[in-house]
Amino acid sequence: MAYRWKTDLTERDVTPEGAWLTRRGLMAGIAGAGIATLAGRGRAAEALEPNTWEEITTYNNFYEFGTDKTDPARHAGAMTIAPWSVRIDGLVDRPADYALEDILSRMTIEERIYRFRCVEAWSRVVPWNGFELADLLEMAGVQSGARYVAFETYLNRDEMPGVRFPVLDWPYVEGLRLDEAMHPLTIMATGIYGRDLPKQNGAPLRLVVPWKYGFKSIKSVVRITLTAEQPPTSWNKANPREYGFYSNVNPEVDHPRWSQATERRIGAGLFARREPTQMFNGYAEEVAGLYEGMDLTKFY
Amino acid sequence: MPLGPAINGAARRVPVWAVWIAGLAPAAWLFWQAATGGLGVEPVEALEHRLGELALQLLIAGLAVTPLRRHLGVNLMRFRRALGLLAFTYVCLHLAVWLLLDVQTLARVWEDVLKRPYITVGMAGFLLLIPLAVTSNDWSVRRLGSRWRRLHRLSYLAAVLGGLHFLLLAKGFQLEPLLYAGAILGLLALRLRLPRRQAA
């Protein structure tokens, strides 16, 4: 079901101040709570000025193409992305290799302007195009025993110079709890700024989970498996002390090697101040409920 | 023609100030690039990392001078002080960028030094270099006599800490920090063998 999350407003969408004041005058005393929500959305939207195309596509982590931030933009061109299919298997009613065209013909593509926060403490705002992961999972038919979703990135040793060295245990794998995967904020992105997703950003299809550190948003997905058990995830396998399964953005839980309290906004320049990091990357209102009663310092 | 004398002949014609200019040029270029967009969309990280890498490269160059002379007969001793001081300069620039442009808050700098091993190790390496830079002048060499040589063996430890600093901050299992650590340990190992040979 597309369009379940509707707060992806931009500055253009913010009600002009004059009209808003009039409306506030009219509605005062009728729906005070509603007004507060509107105002809150307006403020949040104003801060969400997307980064430029260049800022989004020239500074990437996609270790299959090298560990330097500029390596993906330089080397990802070699990746074959057509034809592309996604194997959806495990605890689903209709396991199959789904051709990308078939998936796209059945999904509703919408724009989602999200904050993106890397575990390395940099951030940016990306205007994604994509569809809700929940729609894709429902297409395959999630069985009642499924509790987790495992993802896998494309792997081709001839096309990916970075996999010659075992920086990580290839292929790259990630995972979500089923309720996280079904959350309306969780999307599979197919584009940025209305253009096809660049290869360095995870073409042709990648996960985007905006309240988690960027490495959870696995790129160039070739396989999605519904499981009963928590699946292994690449960074957790590489260093479990530093990277947990959940990896929710949390300014109060530091990475052992650096603070997560603040972040550097990409494109802000050489002399920009660091900005405070928000709980769940600013999506606490939407997702905090998923983790109620959990000790987030333990389940980091 | 043996390689050693050929290089020595060419090196004799290179004035030390030329090494200084060649050594400082990358720093000027990097700051210019960072300020004008040449280092990409996240210039702070790029600048910090490049300065740190250059510092390590210069430390390695300084450590290479003695083994080159002893094993290959290549004498670059004239440039060793410049290489050491250039390395120290780059460590200072690296630290300044980290402090002023990256972390920005003094309290957090201190917290990082105490809490994060790779920063503790890097900072220890920096502190070890300070007495070496201070005593790098002719007057100190004369005054300290044989103690000067012993004191300047701290550069071995400083280089090891620098290499360890790089190893500890890498994400995942990466090749580049291993190459630096290998070069540093290799150059130190060449020194260890020598006393035994002389004794024999």
UniProtKB/TrEMBL annotation, chain A:
PROSITE patterns: TAT. Predicted to be exported by the Tat system. The position of the signal peptide cleavage has not been experimentally proven. It comes from the Bacteria. The keyword Oxidoreductase applies. It holds the Pfam family Oxidored_molyb. It catalyses: L-methionyl-[protein] + a quinone + H2O = L-methionyl-(S)-S-oxide-[protein] + a quinol; L-methionyl-[protein] + a quinone + H2O = L-methionyl-(R)-S-oxide-[protein] + a quinol. Its EC number is 1.8.5.-. Heterodimer of a catalytic subunit (MsrP) and a heme-binding subunit (MsrQ). This is Protein-methionine-sulfoxide reductase catalytic subunit MsrP. The lineage of its organism: Bacteria, Pseudomonadati, Pseudomonadota, Alphaproteobacteria, Rhodobacterales. The gene is msrP.
UniProtKB/TrEMBL annotation, chain B:
Residues 54-162 form the Ferric oxidoreductase domain. The keyword Metal-binding applies. It comes from the Bacteria. GO terms for molecular function: electron transfer activity; FMN binding; heme binding; metal ion binding; oxidoreductase activity, acting on diphenols and related substances as donors. Its cofactor is FMN; heme b. The chain crosses the membrane at residues 14-34, 54-70, 82-101, 116-134, 154-172, 178-194. It is found in: Cell membrane; Membrane. It holds the Pfam family Ferric_reduct. GO terms for biological process: protein repair. One of its GO terms (cellular component) is plasma membrane. Its main location: membrane. It is a multi-pass membrane protein. Keywords: Cell membrane, Electron transport, Flavoprotein, FMN, Heme, Iron, Membrane, Metal-binding, Transmembrane, Transmembrane helix, Transport. Binds 1 FMN per subunit. Binds 1 heme b (iron(II)-protoporphyrin IX) group per subunit. Heterodimer of a catalytic subunit (MsrP) and a heme-binding subunit (MsrQ). Belongs to the MsrQ family. Part of the MsrPQ system that repairs oxidized periplasmic proteins containing methionine sulfoxide residues (Met-O), using respiratory chain electrons. Thus protects these proteins from oxidative-stress damage caused by reactive species of oxygen and chlorine generated by the host defense mechanisms. MsrPQ is essential for the maintenance of envelope integrity under bleach stress, rescuing a wide series of structurally unrelated periplasmic proteins from methionine oxidation. PANTHER family: PROTEIN-METHIONINE-SULFOXIDE REDUCTASE HEME-BINDING SUBUNIT MSRQ. This is Protein-methionine-sulfoxide reductase heme-binding subunit MsrQ. It comes from Rhodosalinus halophilus.
